[in-house]
Write a structure and sequence with these properties.
Blueprint lengths: L2 H35 L7 H11 L1 E3 L11 E3 L3 H14 L9 H4 L13 E4 L3 H13 L4 E4 L3 H9 L5 E8 L3 E2 L1 H9 L3 E9 L6 E8 L11 E9 L7 H10 L3 E7 L2 H4 L4 E7 L3 H14 L4 E9 L4
Parallel strand pairs: 3-4, 3-5, 7-12
Antiparallel strand pairs: 1-2, 5-6, 5-8, 7-8, 9-11, 9-12, 10-11
Helix pairs in contact: 1-3, 3-10
């Protein structure tokens, strides 16, 4: 290839790059205009319906309708992520867009009269977990229950503010039986910690749980957002959610598929992401609310090291 041919190719590539940049700029401008057209205010069923109508499936040109695979979503994944970010910026009023707590409906604690008590099944490992949690939340008292169902019922019926359950271990991963108790008794994560076994390597992860999502405690540790989601044909996919989370600076912590016996249906997942920036987390929550409105938050919580 001659030097003149190389120059021609380089010039053509440069021109295409300029064209692509112009297209991206105009695309972003249209997406921002679309976000403004959806209006401010709060996330509502009406807004979700309008969003779905705008980005829902349209017939792919050049194909006959009625056959599987003949439809695709109007906006690409990257477009929808950007659109949700712009929608977030236009939510709220003069005080600015909502916080993650507002988007999740976290209000003043309704359980002020509930004893500041932690209930758990008394044993060596749970005692160690309680010790770690008690260092993070002052003024806790303890009560014991004879079994794990009794532990959960103490919180469900308002006789204790928190309970402690094991949620996973290094040998088995997620402990599905205990995860089922979390769902059955409408519990949400507040804190988690790992308790090491005597070998110093294997561990059991314990969770401090509360009925209802709480404001994250102001303690040092890894900040986590965890939720349950199912994915229906034609809607957002698991890769969509992962890419959106990555775009907003969240890092995947785990994905656990829930057994059909637990959820009553297949294709349900527990997903957890670590986060550092509250505004980026809020943008991700807007994406979930519009793209995956059936998601269910399990908690904004902090994972404490075993040394705390």
């Amino acid at each position: 290839m001659t030097e003149d041919e190389l120059k021609i190719i380089a010039a053509n590539l440069s021109a295409l790059t300029d064209e692509a940049s112009s297209v991206m700029e105009r695309r972003f401008a249209h997406l921002y205009g679309l976000a403004r057209a959806l209006g401010g205010g709060e996330l509502s069923d009406a807004k979700r319906g309008e969003y779905t109508r705008l980005v829902d499936e349209v017939e792919t040109p050049g194909r006959s309708s009625g056959q599987e695979g003949d439809f695709s979503r109007l906006l690409l994944r990257a477009d929808r992520i950007s659109l949700c970010s712009f929608i977030y910026e236009n939510l709220g009023g003069r005080h600015g867009p909502p916080s993650p707590e507002e988007l999740l409906g976290i209000e003043a604690p309704p359980d002020e009269d509930v004893p500041n008590r932690v209930c758990y099944l008394h044993n060596f490992f749970t005692d160690k977990a309680f010790s770690i949690f008690a260092d993070a939340l002052e003024g806790l008292t303890v009560s014991y229950a004879p079994d794990f169902t009794g532990v959960c019922e103490e919180v469900y019926y308002g006789r204790a503010k928190y309970c402690i359950l094991p949620t996973e271990n290094s040998a088995d991963g997620m402990l599905s039986g205990f995860r089922a108790l979390v769902g059955k008794y409408e519990l949400n994560y507040v804190l988690t910690c790992d308790v090491l076994a005597q070998d110093g390597e294997s561990f059991t992860r314990f969770a401090l749980l509360h009925r209802g999502i709480m404001q994250p405690p102001t303690v040092l540790g890894e900040r986590v957002f965890e939720f349950t989601a199912s994915f229906d044909p034609g809607g957002a996919t698991l890769p969509d959610v992962h890419d959106a989370a990555s775009s907003f600076g969240l890092v995947l912590r785990h994905i656990n598929m829930l057994p059909a016996s637990f959820s009553g249906r297949s294709g349900m997942f527990d997903l957890a992401f670590t986060y550092g920036d509250m505004e980026k987390l809020a943008k991700f929550l807007v994406f979930l609310s519009l793209e995956l409105p059936q998601f269910e938050a399990l908690g904004l919580y902090t994972h404490l090291s075993s040394g705390e």
